[in-house]
Amino acid sequence: MARVVVDVMLKPEILDPQGQAVQRALPRLGFEGIADVRQGKRFELEVEGPVDDAALARIHEMAETFLANTVIENFTVRVDS
Amino acid sequence: MARVVVDVMLKPEILDPQGQAVQRALPRLGFEGIADVRQGKRFELEVEGPVDDAALARIHEMAETFLANTVIENFTVRVDS
Amino acid sequence: MTLDTVKHAGETPDTEQPWAELGLKQDEYERIRSILGRRPTGAELAMYSVMWSEHCSYKSSKVHLRQFGEKAPENDALLVGIGENAGVVDVGQGYAVTFKVESHNHPSYIEPYQGAATGVGGIVRDILAMGARPVAVMDPLRFGAADHPDTKRVLPGVVAGIGGYGNCLGLPNIGGEVVFDACYQGNPLVNALCVGVMKHEDIHLAKASGAGNKVILYGARTGGDGIGGVSVLASETFDDSKPTKRPAVQVGDPFQEKLLIECTLEIFREDLVDGIQDLGGAGLSCATSELASAGSGGMRVELDRVHLRDATLSPEEILMSESQERMCAIVEPGKVDRFLEICEKWDVIATVIGEVTDGERLEIFWHGEQIVDVPPRTVAHEGPVYERPYARPDWQDALQADDANKLARPATAEELREQVLKVISSPNQASKSWITDQYDRFVQGNTVLAQPEDSGMVRIDEDTNLGVAVATDGNGRYAKLDPYAGAQLALAESYRNVAASGARPLAISNCLNFGSPEDPAVMWQFAEATRGLADGCLTLGTPVTGGNVSLYNQTGETAIHPTPVVAVLGVIDDVNRRTPIAFSDEGHLLYLLGDTKEELGGSAWSQVVHDHLGGLPPAVDLDREKLLGEILISASRDGMVDAAHDLSDGGLIQALAESCLRGGKGARVVVPDGIDPFVLLFSESAGRAVVAVPRSEELRFTDMCGARGLPAARIGVVDGEAIDIQGQFSIPLAELREAHEATIPALIA
Amino acid sequence: MTARVGVVTFPGTLDDRDTQRAVRIAGLEPVPLWHRDKDLKQVDAVVLPGGFSYGDYLRAGAISRFSPVMETVIEQARGGMPVLGICNGFQVLTETHLLPGAMLRNNHLHFICRDQKLRVENADTAWTSDYEAGQEISVPLKNIDGRYVADERTLDELEAEGRVAFRYLDGNPNGSLRDIAGITNAAGNVVGLMPHPEHAVEPGVGTGRTDGLGFFTSILKKLVNA
Ligand SMILES: Nc1ncnc2c1ncn2[C@@H]1O[C@H](COP(=O)(O)OP(=O)(O)O)[C@@H](O)[C@H]1O
Ligand SMILES: [Mg+2]
């Protein structure tokens, strides 16, 4: 079975308090030199059958209408190898 | 500035209620043929300075001690290109 | 690997078995062999080992817990007593209430969020299994020092887990406790309580009867969660230094549990089950053996029918899995279809996995081959019982001789004021709203009182306004000084809290958190605490309906303070008559009820100002508690008091501060003749409360106290915007609020 | 004759029974609606109550939006039927795009439960006519994903058209842009807000106040006088 990964991240202009909380905590933990942190979601889909263009198109649609809310989020779809 | 991505996923043996909820919803939305869905977190770190082995080692440590909860989660670190 | 069938076990008596790794002792393993007349199969060994663990079998505590039954007070309110998933109490008008408090201490230290979340999930299923709709939760919590770095890891995770799970289930959180003490550093206590309501006729029990009835497993799929968790986590001293030995953690799915609740309630409404049991610790091993043991006849289970999340699980693992959000029901064949239909409606997976037989054995099959053939009672109810040696610790005398009453006291009014602010802003005495604001207290629309009130109260009938109140209390410092008195003080405080809010105490549940039972000193503390609690319940007339024991709360040789947590349930006929703690009307008169003696042992003052623990805890007088309770209840019913607040840790000043801040009104206090202001403000004498009495009711109220012989001293009046202790000091409410509310966010947020 | 108000139950809905009670107290007839049924049983208005439908997994409201009942609700809302989304219901309404914007994790990342002061900015909607514009009310707020966001253009448009229905007072509890607690569509029939009016309808329970009752008396007047 093939794995397709959909990454969903908040759009750059949207405040990401989770990422900020991580970033603020880092120096306290002794990690310097991280200028910015954004936190998003990663979906791993196990796809039955071949992952051809048609399948990817369907997954793209699924991401657009369901996995991501495009009012606030961007997404990418890619086949995991 | 270079971007490093840390992906954090629940260990395979750990229940993933979020992924399951997504998977169960898919057929109702007309998406068939997805055998399994796991949902995890994706962190995008903007790193100051060079992303050499030392920097990656530090980020690995950060992921292990902070970004992931290794009692229940696995993680991967990679440089985004 | 070949399947270890019953037949195979009979033919290979000399096969080595990992009984020690599973937490069994040599003699326990021998006993299993003699019960079966052969060596156990792998599956049988798995079942016995989890069911005979401390957590499931109560092997160290049983001999002491018996007193709760033997000394039980006459009480016709008790409908179901100890031994079921939870006790059930008659609250009138045909309603019954079930409640129970349980621990999830060790898992919450390993994985605070999931540990605490699944703790809530587990107790909610216990309540549900009795036939009740869960209506509220509470969470008595104890952490290490507030400023310890690990507390910053554990506390936010635990609080988020309790909130994340409870909020998602739609259960209002109506109270609990948050206590910090270095003794809990490696052993935080995460106790969770749930209250449920039903009609008398809806009570369900965990038993399998009626040959031919079907056994249905429903809820979440079974996965590899917490395999061995019961025996490894609860039976052995927890050792953090070996992460590789960490057992798999259970992950909760509150959404699944919410479906399970609604689905189960609908199944109850249509009267489709004969017996029902939740799956908690020890999973299917526990549910099948307990159901079969408590019922008549035997049970036959086809284990391969269980819906799995992980297809590679072995039968032993399936039997031991602690996957959450599952229930097991016994259903007549004619009702199975409808049962499955309701499960389908709620998207809940349900499978017929077996049936009740007319035999006497619990028989489990794996693809047609028999892997378990045991007398269920020997697994579930006739496990080992230990009479562990116990002895009063050699340090107890010295501890008690180290009298707190001799500690240096404030020399000036200015110093007294400073110490008041210091105590009120100390982590244990400070406002906990940073925590409780993360819990939904309004959902279900029946919450009458929630934090920071003395007890949590919910309405259970919208037409008659019948309600129930619950309070939970425990004071490990008192119990360390004297475990017998400490347990009674926890009982007394919880009882007083319920009465202060106007409800009549009916029954109790408890969670007994202690160190290792293998240490005779700890065992002595346990014996003393249970004896104190049983004696106390007899005097107060409040039976023990159930509870939970958590042992091995220790790191190396050092045990936590003995920490019996007591939950008292009360009933109030009309929730509109409840008494809040808030001083909300100027001019109301403040009365201090009870006797104030010089009692500072174990007090908040001794801890905060002197970092001291020694001497004796406050004296217990349960007859006085009863009288105080009656006065508070009558005063509430007849509208004689506008506010009431019980006095406990922190003493009078703590109660005044909380009531003033809650109502946004100040208080002018006159120190009565013959009492030292310091003692008046900080003593922790039991059996006391402060009440606000409208002037129009003063005579009636004081007459009542006089006639019943309860000391009532007028100490002041609700007035102004400060706490003004006349002749001593004044603290503006704004300053008081800052001191009280800033501490926890500053430490934890 | 009184009006019938449907209250939808999704898997994981929590405040459905509370909302039914509030509807009843206001003198309306509550009608339970099930997420799998397209049929709205001829109700005159619909409330999408609070809770964690589908556990709020993925995103709050994201999965419920695709339920059969929502197909009909969306269609009828576009036709003018009054719809109120409370908390999770508001999240469902933004996911369906009946209302603009989206709801994100609170800026402090915690669940927050408190008695929240609001100003009613728009008293001309189907659900707010019993209030005065500018009136201050207090109702419980309880959520973890309550931060309202939309792009600047949308926000300006909402302001310009008077479609910000409620604003938080005495401090923004979650980082919602422009202190927005609730909004309405242009027609005023679809309203969503994060706080919970259904938990403030009876003295003696909840907050002890009845500031939330106006939502339900507003719709009663609209439907019965209509
Ligand atoms: N401290 C206690 N006081 C009274 N009853 C207790 C106590 N500890 C356990 N019990 C009772 O023993 C029985 C078994 O407890 P337990 O195995 O924890 O139940 P469950 O598995 O349903 O949670 C229950 O009826 C419980 O109420
Ligand atoms: Mg049980």
From TrEMBL, chains A, B:
This is Phosphoribosylformylglycinamidine synthase subunit PurS. Pathway: Purine metabolism; IMP biosynthesis via de novo pathway; 5-amino-1-(5-phospho-D-ribosyl)imidazole from N(2)-formyl-N(1)-(5-phospho-D-ribosyl)glycinamide: step 1/2. NCBIfam families: phosphoribosylformylglycinamidine synthase subunit PurS (TIGR00302), PRK05974.1 (NF004630). GO terms for cellular component: cytoplasm. HAMAP family: PurS. GO terms for molecular function: ATP binding; phosphoribosylformylglycinamidine synthase activity. Its main location: cytoplasm. Its EC number is 6.3.5.3. It is found in: Cytoplasm. Part of the FGAM synthase complex composed of 1 PurL, 1 PurQ and 2 PurS subunits. One of its GO terms (biological process) is 'de novo' IMP biosynthetic process. Keywords: ATP-binding, Cytoplasm, Ligase, Nucleotide-binding, Purine biosynthesis. It catalyses: N(2)-formyl-N(1)-(5-phospho-beta-D-ribosyl)glycinamide + L-glutamine + ATP + H2O = 2-formamido-N(1)-(5-O-phospho-beta-D-ribosyl)acetamidine + L-glutamate + ADP + phosphate + H(+). It holds the Pfam family PurS. Belongs to the PurS family. Part of the phosphoribosylformylglycinamidine synthase complex involved in the purines biosynthetic pathway. Catalyzes the ATP-dependent conversion of formylglycinamide ribonucleotide (FGAR) and glutamine to yield formylglycinamidine ribonucleotide (FGAM) and glutamate. The FGAM synthase complex is composed of three subunits. PurQ produces an ammonia molecule by converting glutamine to glutamate. PurL transfers the ammonia molecule to FGAR to form FGAM in an ATP-dependent manner. It comes from the Bacteria. InterPro entries: PurS, PurS-like_sf.
